[in-house]
């Protein structure tokens, strides 16, 4: 969308009107001007009592009388466009990518308000500019609920100092990143065999669950009691997301089930399956070492887990304290 900086003159009115309507606020009236397509809207008159919104194709820059064309009118605000920019945002697993098109060559500075010293880009007279704002905490991006990330970007017209023509733009990226279920199916025959086939039901991000042997390869033929590692990881390298796992079940093809990790992320029976812990070599992964097991009635074992996504890293597992009377 187009975003424009407006210069306001209180108790002033420009008697040149192309369209008259209503608006709840001056900002809404300015927004109507931004969205006008029938003519090139350059300015607005907003009457604060009756909330009249008058759009004009002229301003004090192009009318022959200049600022002398304005007249005094109580409760009226005359507001004309200054610098405008077209702003769009694309989201990936690492950044919010802003693309800005300016109507005049841009020599200013664009920065993330959460960390202006490290997250910025300076214009060199071009009309287009791209700016990557980290989804992590480096640029001060905030997580506003599951899968929703926001930051405030300042478009500073001068490369060094702030002026009243600077503009703040709120940037939001939303991902469908609430609790998701990841399933891994394992087949065991006479000699218990675990062959992993992973289905990720919840992009983005893409998450896989694997069973590894002691060498770190996908497990092939194993026996009961063999040392194995269950690994859950985000596939995209450098992702700003971390993961928290809970409600891990092992299920047989005949409907039997074994609760391994509870809703708090704690092991139900650590002698069967220990806590999932962050992989020190990969911050977007969780691992747990366990010994191979199977159900007596079936050679098929399904692992199913719920995943919650966090910004940068998740809070550590905290066991719920039970009260006694």
From TrEMBL:
Residue ranges of coiled coil: none
Domain ZP: 90-325
SUPFAM superfamilies in alphabetical order: Hairpin loop containing domain-like (SSF57414)
InterPro entries: Celegans_DevNeuronal_Protein, CUT_N, Pan_app, ZP_dom
Domain Apple: 4-84
Gene3D superfamilies assigned to the protein according to its UniProt record, in alphabetical order: Hepatocyte Growth Factor (3.50.4.10)
Protein name from the UniProt record: ZP domain-containing protein
Species assigned in the record: Ixodes scapularis (Black-legged tick)
